[in-house]
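User: For documentation purposes, I need each entry recorded in a consistent format: the amino acid sequence on its own, followed directly by the corresponding structure tokens. There are two entries in this batch. Please keep commentary to a minimum and don't merge the entries.

Assistant: Recorded as requested. Entry 1:
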Amino acid sequence: MTDNQKIEKLLTIGFEFAGHVLNNYFHLKPYLAQKIDSFIRNKFSSHFIIGLQIRNQFLKENDTGLFIKCARRIEAEKLSVLGNSTVKWFISTDSSSMLKL
């Protein structure tokens, strides 16, 4: 197994564990859950959503472009499959310059 395969396996295990813990032990207060549900219904219903979390402190500047290229490829593939559906991006970031990108 290559180093990249080992890293990918570790990441997968990390995501599986985090997903299990979040889904089974962390629960939002009803008021916050309702606000989030309302936001999603108002902003994202009937769209294919691409979500990106870009943390600037962990990336090299040229790596950020790779996130965008990857998301654009996903967008193009989904549009070709979904036809006239629309895609919306949801971006969370610690840098306002990322939003301009």
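Entry 2:
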Amino acid sequence: MNSDTATKTHEQAIAALNAAFARRYHSVAQYILNADPYVSPEDKDLLRRIQAIAEYDHQEAERLSDIIEDLDGVPFVPPFDHEVAEWNYLALPHLAANLADALRTQLKQCEKSMPSVEAVPVARKALLDVSAALRKQIESLKAS
């Protein structure tokens, strides 16, 4: 691989990691928790599952940020998606369905980014880890 190709591959990997980082940093699950949702007594378990997703997002954002920096990149976060601002004060089951949809979209985006990280093992592993976590999170929300 020549140096131009290596540089481009490296930059693409950092861009893919930054996209994953931004999605974890702007955690939809954390936004839901901050949006003062209506939580009925029967939704307490669902609330705990959403809290677990938010905690994962926080920890994973830190890990992805470290990986980006280790690759000599700069973690970048675009503005928060304004669409979720319409979710305030809704019932938790409705918000969980929205979260599941958002996570499915994020999984597709992550999987679409995989070719850009193939030549950078640490980036590839990070995106595979995020994809696996997203699948588990989506599955956990189906139980509601």
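Summary note for entry 2:
The two ends are 49 Å apart (CA to CA).
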